[in-house]
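Lab meeting, item 3. Inverse folding demo.
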C-alpha cells in the first residue's frame, strides 16, 4: 500500500529526527547535515524542506525529546492535588527518570546541546525558545492549584517552574554522574517543596495582591505531604 504524501513527509521527518539524535549526541556542533541525511536515507534537501536549516532540525529535536517527558509529568500529577502535593509528585517522578534505561543518553544530549548553543548564539536562542514552549506545560500544571487557601497564579507558577528546572537539572546530573549520593526520591521531594515559599513565589518588583497575599506566606518544607 502506497503512503500518502502526508505519511511520507512524517516518515521522513521521523527518520531525520532519529538520525539527528544519534549524530548530534556524538558530534555536537560538528554534526554534519550530510551524515544526518545519509543516516536517514534522505538528502540534505529533505532537511531544508522539513526544518528549514540545521538549527531548525536541532530545535525540533529538542521539542521531540522533551514532549514525551512533559506528557509523562502531566500523567504523574493528578488535577485534584494542591500545589505542595503536585510539586512532591513532580519531584519523585523526576528522580525516577534518573534510573530510566535512556537516562545517560539523555544526559549526553543535554551536554551536547549546551555546547552547541555556546558555539552558535542563534541556535542557542532557538533551543531556549523550544524549552520554554515545552515548559509552558509545567506552568499550566501548577497554575490554578490551591495553596494555603488561595489559587496559584500563572506568574507564580512560572517562577516556581524556573526554580524547579534549575534544581532538578543539577540534581539529576549529580545523580547520574555519581556526585549526589543519597539523593533519593525523598531528597528530591524535600528540596523541591522547600522552594514553595514566599521567596520563590513572590516577585517583589511586581504588585499583585494574589502573589503578595497570605497564600504564600509561611509555606515551607514542613507543610509538605509525607512520602507517597
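The presenter then showed the designed sequence:
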Amino acid at each position: 500500500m502506497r503512503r500518502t504524501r502526508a505519511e511520507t513527509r512524517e516518515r521522513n521527518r521521523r527518520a531525520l529526527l532519529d538520525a539527528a539524535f544519534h549524530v548530534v549526541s556524538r558530534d555536537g556542533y560538528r554534526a554534519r547535515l550530510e551524515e544526518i541525511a545519509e543516516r536517514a536515507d534522505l538528502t540534505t534537501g529533505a532537511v531544508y524542506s522539513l526544518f528549514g536549516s540545521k538549527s531548525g532540525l536541532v530545535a525540533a529535536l529538542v521539542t521531540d525529546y522533551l514532549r514525551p517527558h512533559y506528557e509523562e509529568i502531566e500523567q504523574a500529577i493528578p488535577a485534584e492535588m494542591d500545589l505542595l502535593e503536585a510539586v512532591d509528585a513532580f519531584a519523585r517522578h523526576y528522580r525516577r527518570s534518573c534510573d530510566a534505561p535512556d537516562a545517560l543518553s539523555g544526559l549526553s544530549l543535554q551536554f551536547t546541546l549546551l555546547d552547541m548553543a555556546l558555539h552558535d548564539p542563534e541556535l542557542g536562542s532557538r533551543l531556549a525558545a523550544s524549552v520554554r514552549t515545552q515548559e509552558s506545560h509545567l506552568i499550566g500544571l501548577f497554575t490554578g492549584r490551591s495553596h494555603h487557601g488561595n489559587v496559584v497564579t500563572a506568574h507564580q507558577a512560572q517562577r516556581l517552574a524556573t526554580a524547579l528546572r534549575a534544581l532538578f537539572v543539577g540534581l539529576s546530573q549529580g545523580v547520574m554522574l555519581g556526585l549526589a549520593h543519597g539523593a533519593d526520591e525523598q531528597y528530591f521531594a524535600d528540596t523541591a517543596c522547600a522552594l514553595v515559599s514566599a521567596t520563590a513565589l513572590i516577585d517583589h518588583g511586581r504588585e499583585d495582591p494574589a502573589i503578595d497575599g497570605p497564600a504564600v506566606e509561611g509555606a515551607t518544607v514542613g507543610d509538605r505531604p509525607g512520602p507517597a
